[in-house]
Amino acid sequence: MSAALLVAEPEPDLRSFLERQLASDGFDVLGAQHPGETLDLAERVRPDLVLVATDLGGGSGLEICRRLREGEPGRAWNRGVPVIVLGETSAATVDRVRAFNRGCDDYLERPFAYEELLARIRAVLRRVAPAPSNRVEAGQIEIDLPTRAVRVAGCRVALAAREFELLVKLATEPCRVFTKEELLREVWDYRSIGRTRTLDSHASRLRRKLAAVSETPFVLNEWGVGYRLMLPA
Questions:
Q1: By Cβ atoms counted within 10 A, which residue in 28, 66, 188, 195 is the most buried?
Q2: What is the DSSP string of 160-215?
Q3: Per-residue confidence (pLDDT) for residue 191, from 0 to 100
Q4: Could you read off the pLDDT of 159-209 as tens digits, one per residue?
Q5: Pick the CATH number of 135-229 from 3.40.50.720, 1.10.10.10, 1.20.1250.20, 3.90.950.20
């Protein structure tokens, strides 16, 4: 599945260039040109990695690093999202140190070659990738990934391929609401998300199959947002 990248760069030509090239290399790319838009997208889309310029219009890219890491009351983004800072041409050692102190994972000084940026993005994504696990458990739900076996309260449940993948995604973070955009991108690998009932129909079938062996519906629709798992107390 494609990793989602958020490119926070105030210079339109460079931002457009990075969006095109990264998309051609298999990433799902979103662009932002100011701090507010960057944080809004980080919260709504939950990208796998953020590229942020130090001279982000209307505020410092280093400040964005700090806010992403520390979080803010009433807002929910992945505070561990990897961040690569795109520094100034005249950056000194102290600038790089400040960026790392704010929580960035890598720092690349301008002018940079696209090939080096791509290599660093892939290296950071490999470094933060979770160790593979053969089992996923969420309350009464037990999923064996190698055999694709699903049990609910000890009862075996047969699922179609996309139903299984949707359940695995929801079960990885059972207390979180996954947006429809996330699920369509990460389960169905949709690049462009238009009007579709694919997710809703699969979620409905998955809900019925899980509820058939338990009194818990498990798959809940958070209207206007997406889906999450409901686990019994």
A1: 28
A2: -HHHHHHHHHHHHSTTSPEEHHHHHHHTS--SS--S--HHHHHHHHHHHHHHTTSS
A3: 63
A4: 999 999 999 999 998 888 999 888 988 898 876 556 678 899 999 999 999
A5: 1.10.10.10
